[in-house]
Amino acid sequence: xxxxxxxxxxxxxxxxxxxxxxxxxxxxxxxxxxxxxxxxxxxxxxxxxxxxxxxxxxxxxxxxxxxxxxxxxxxxxxxxxxxxxxxxxxxxxxxxxxxxxxxxxxxxxxxxxxxxxxxxxxxxxxxxxxxxxxxxxxxxxxxxxxxxxxxxxx
Length: 154
Description:
There is one protein chain. This protein is mostly helical. It folds into three domains: 7-59; 72-106; 120-152. It has nine helices and three strands. The chain has helices at residues 16-25, 36-41, 44-52, 72-81, 86-93, 97-106, 120-128, 133-140, 144-152, and strands at 7-10, 31-34, 56-59. It has a three-stranded parallel β-sheet. β1, α1 and β2 (31-34) form a beta-alpha-beta unit. α4 packs across α6, α5 (86-93) packs across α6 (97-106) and α8 packs across α9. The radius of gyration is 29 Å and the shape is rod-shaped. The chain starts with 6 loop residues before the first strand and ends with a helix. The relative contact order is 0.08.
């Protein structure tokens, strides 16, 4: 029982049992919204009965999923503008990495997701000095596969 709800949106044609359940679940219900196609298939008797109970049935388009970001796109853009990486933004805001990339794309942020985490020139110069990939990895504190990737990149 939710006493705070005054408006609900339904996606199915209401039946008498459905109406009773809604009234029991939402005692302060004032308005039921539904798509025009649902409204047109709803019995006029039901609409009149609800009207007598001071519950208005209204046609309303309610297309698409609602945003789950709660304004997070603004925070993501702000942190991106401050120079944080997508991973850092993800960890700071508790969002998935994919969600952060989506919000950055949605906000059309100037975001370089190809920002180099490691200094490629430094890796190459250490290789030229004769260090092995394992020694470079340990010296620069980076994964060995990243060293190999940088060295093999044309």
